[in-house]
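Recall the central idea of this unit: under ordinary conditions, the amino acid sequence of a chain determines the structure it adopts. In this exercise we apply that idea directly, starting from the sequence alone.
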Amino acid sequence: MSNKQSFKVCFCFKRIFRLKVAEPPEEIKNLFNQYAENGTITIDNLQNFLIEFQGEPNATKEDAQAIFNSLRHLNIFQRKGLHLDAFFRYLLGDLNPPFYSKVHHDMNAPLAHYFLFTGHNSYLTGNQLSSDSSVHPIINALLQGVRVIELDLWPNSKKNGVEVRHGGTLTSPVELIKCLRAIKDNAFIASEYPVVITFEDHLPSNLQAKVAKMVIETFGDMLYSPRSEFIMEFPSPDSLKRRILISTKPPEYHESQRPRESGATDNKDNEQDDQDDQDEDEENAIPEYKQLIAIHAGKPKGGLDIWHIDPIKVRRLSLSEQELENATRTRGSDIVRFTQRNLLRVYPKGTRLDSSNYDPMLGWTHGAQMVAFNMQGYGKHLWIMNGMFRANGGCGYVKKPDFLLALGPNNEAFDPNEPLPVKTNLKVKVYMGEGWHSDFHHTHFDRYSPPDFFVRVGIAGVPNDTKMMETSPIEDQWVPVWNKEFIFPLSVPELAVLRVEVKEYDTSGKHDFGGQTCLPIPELRTGIRAVPLHNRRGQRYKSVRLLMGFDFDYAE
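Accordingly, the structure predicted from this sequence is:
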């Protein structure tokens, strides 16, 4: 690659800029010298670096050897040890990620003890009013690790089949069977942990019977159905690996419609014609459908408080974002207590016709397991959602912090409205960035000069923890070096997400987008880490990344 770059300003004039090659910042050079012997870092030196500086107490010589092996293809690698450039390439490489990539949470607790990666109207390709319904958004969501898929069930135009669409809008339909098959084929590629399908059911009983048949025939042994209608506690994600669960509001039916017990006899003659078979199918239609439901949805009957906790059965409650916000003003502790055993699903308010999303933190701080998002768009709230579910190996299940599951000495639950003291200070240092010159055309950001990048860094969390800060722009550099440190006091680090966004400075104030990521703060690895960036839609860039440092200073 040429070390110079020209930008045409007019027909007769060009601006020439020298391309800067990525080189270690001064702090990295000093760190290298601290661990090097005679200008190289040996395997033993590297193991000590991993343990002492990177905060990896269990790092082994095999781990250090794996890093050595990953650098063998580079011309800068020498067998006896790592020179400064090789050490620098390791720090910026894929073997130095900012968080752990394996499932490591306890997966044997009830489902209610986890946040689940949840989609809303999972079949829509675009807006809520006129976009197409398709299996492709469902497949894309599952491949991202989403574990809860929502399908709205409606009779087709001939009233003899079932389709999926957003009722009362101009959205086009897609056949239910296609959606079910797409789920079956893609459910467990990104994660082996259970997939929940929530049905919003607008069907008569005869079509519910067709749905039951379709579901049973499509999923077979993958389908999980409880042995009893009501359960006192949800099963665990680990016990439900590679299983499909149906969640919907149980249909109402009369006592006479209950299926006969096995071995029961009838006084009528044993001969039955086709009409009798059809009558029996219709009689058993709703109970057959009801038996599929693993997670019962709905509000309590008899005028009971919606946060009523039934001692003998658990359920799922759904609220809009606005309904939840209203409830949290006076019932915060009750909501947390409810979600210790029961499931709470929150969905976007109906006015979000553009498929935008809302702040997920309000739901999470109150223990809501299913904060349902429109996955087909982009924006900071969806980035935060993706950041939360990068935790725990990206499996789509994140264990709730203990304080949301505990009861106090007087049997009281956590109250999210009560302010908390600072628990830790997160120190974030932005050293440098690279990769834009490889992933973007040289005039993408500015027609007349190299880009002027700056970084916005901040916290998405409870209100007292939420803030954004930024570096100064570095002018005319494809490989900017900022060396800027930020300190973020955190009162609830367990629910906090680190936001990182790169912008290219524009005097108009309309700064160009240069990449983003969100990282789960409870899983940040301390030390110096390579942080890959993603585009607006959450797809990872091939080369763009930042070199960042992380450390925690816990309060006494």
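The longest strand covers residues 540-554.
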